Amino acid sequence: MRAENVDLVKIQNPSDWNKIILALPNAHILQTWQWGQVKAAYGWQPLPYIWKDNDNNITAAALVLCRSTGLGKGAIRLNVLYIPKGPLLKWEDKSITEQVVSDLEKLAKERKAILIKIDPDVPIGWGIPGNESSWDDLQGIRLKELLIDNGWRFSQDQIQFRNTVLIDLTQTEEQLLSAMKQKTRYNIRLAGKKGVTVRIGSPEDIPMLNDMYAYTAVRDGFIIRSADYYDTLWRTFIKDGLAEPLIAEFSGKPIAAVFIFHFAGISRYLYGMSYDEHREAMPNHLLQWQAMIRSKELECHTYDMWGAPDEFNEQDSLWGVYRFKEGFGGKVLRTLGAWDFPNRPLSYQLYTRVLPEVLHLMRRKGMKETKRRVMS
User: Fold this and answer.
1) Is the dihedral of CA 341, 346, 347, 350 positive or negative?
2) Which tens digit of pLDDT belongs to each residue from 4-21?
3) What average pLDDT does the chain have?
C-alpha cells in the first residue's frame, strides 16, 4: 500500500461513509458519519480518510476529528486530531498497520497538530487479569509495541472507556438468563412482579430524558454536557435509525431509561439514567434485560455494556458499576486504550500539563450548570 493512496473522502450521502466502514473490521458507532456531524456542531471538523491498495480496494478508514486550540492568551492556535474508536483496519496485517500508523503521523505534521490521538477497539486481553479464565491478546500487544517504537505515548486523556463487558446475543434468551447470576435473574423477575414496564421511546421523550440524565449526574456525581448537546446527539441517531431509548415506567410514570446505539451488529448501552423513586422495584435490571432482547430483535450479535474498571479492584471508581454489569454474565474485554503521537513535543508537554486544569474548571462549571438545571 502506498502513502499516496490515502484519500480525504468527499461524502455526499451519510450512508456512503457508513457503507465503507461497515466493510472493515470493528466498525464502530463512534466512527459513523452521524457521530462526525454531531461533533461538527460542537467545534470539531470531521475528516473522513480511506486507504486503498494497488487494486483500488479500501483497506482502512478513519473518521478524524480536528479541533483548533490555543495554549494560553494570545497563543498561536494549533490543531488537535482525534480518531474515536478508530482507525478501522485488519490490525493483524502488519503492512497495512505500519502504513496507517505512518500516514497518521504524517497527517499530524500536515495539519500542524499538537498531537493525534487514536483509540481503536484492539484487544490486549480478555477477562479479569489474574483470573484463570483470562488471557492476553497478542494483536493488541504487538500494536502497543509498534506505537512505542514510533514514539507514541499512552494518553493521559482516556476519552472513552478502555475496558468493557460484552454479552453474546447469539445465545437464546434461556441461555442468556442461565449465564446471569441468580440475584440478577431474581431482580429482573422482581421488576416485572412489581409492575415495572418498559417501552421504546421516541424523540418526544428527549426533554424528559434530558431532565432525568441531569438528575442522575447530580445524584451520582459525574459530569455531563449541555442539554442541547444530548438533544442534538439523540435526535440525530434516532432519526437515522441507529439509536433508541428504552424507558422503564411505574404506573405510567418514567422512572429509569437507557439509550442503546446499534451499528455493525453491535448494540451499545451508551447512556443510562434514573430517578430515585421506585428503585426498590429494580427497573435498571429489567431495562438491561429488555435492551438485550431488543438488540436481538435488531439482529445484533453483541451487546456492549460500555465501560468497566481500568483496575479491577474496589478502589476503581467504576467498581460499583462493574459489579452491577457483572451480574449479567458477560465477558470482560480489555483494549489498548487511547494513544497520542506528540507531533510537537514541547507544545504537547504544555498541553498535557494545562489540559487537566482546564478540564477541572470545565467540569466544575458543568456540574454547577447541571445542578441549576435540576433545581430549576
Assistant:
1) positive
2) 467 777 777 778 999 999
3) 93
